Predict the 3D structure of the following.
Amino acid sequence: MRRDIHRASDSPPSYEAQRRFSPNVLIVGETGVGKSSVVNLIAGEPLATVHSGAGACTLEATSYDLILPDNQGLSHHIRLFDTVGLNEPQFRKTDYLTAIEKANTLICQLQRTGGIRLLLFCIRGGRITAVMQNNYRLFCDILCQNKVPVAFVVTGLENEVSMEGWWERNVPMFEAYGLSCASHACVTAIRGLNDCYAGKYYESQTRARAMLLAHVTGGGTSWQPDRTGWFIHLAGKLLRWLSQIKSRRRQALPVEELARHLQDKCKFSRSEAEYLAGKIWVKRLENAGPDFVKSDDTSSIESL
């Protein structure tokens, strides 16, 4: 990752320079787990609009630039991407085509700003579902190719006597399903009626910020692969998912249609679109990579 070099005699980097090279953190997870509320919790102000997520498209992202203080009073610039995940335990051709369009935009943004430093995977305390597993595989395995640290933020724990106690009771279930993380924060992202959860809310804010700062200031580097290879990998693995879903309603996606979509929606030239479509078509045949978890697989759902 490119860095500005400053000697001791130099003036501190400008605000714009710090902002430009802020570490990128993706906040991910399915709709309804409180991603936007987590953005606001960390920011300490209502930056993100909390909504149902209806109509949002997989891999669509909204970015927020934050300045967070650490325990020593130093300020750190961080860029959060509130990113839409899979919201249903199914994946159709239209979902795929929209997802790769949004993925191309996201990859371009991340490439321009230094790659990815951390994934914040949001989970609502309750159940491990097929949708949760597919979102984990989408972001950790497919988008980030298991090259980016993952931190869990478990939301909806305002009624727990001990929020951390919830994790201690349930961590074996996460391990059983291969859902691993480098660190975690158990939180409530709401203050409640008449601020009845205010104490736990500010405790949660402290925990979430400390975990985030530990990752982005701990001397690590951001992951920033080649843009073209990154896009081919993601689009190819998602196309493999599409081929795994057996449904009478599933429509075939000819390579020619994929090339037209890349040209029309992603604004590649005709030759680029045809080249990428061919590479994506080959990538889908590779057996390596996570499988799509189907909703009718009862073993994929467990209570926590």
About this structure: The chain has a mean pLDDT of 87. The CA atoms of residues 127 and 303 lie 5 Å apart. The first strand starts at residue 24 and ends at 28. Residues 93-112 form the longest helix (20 residues).
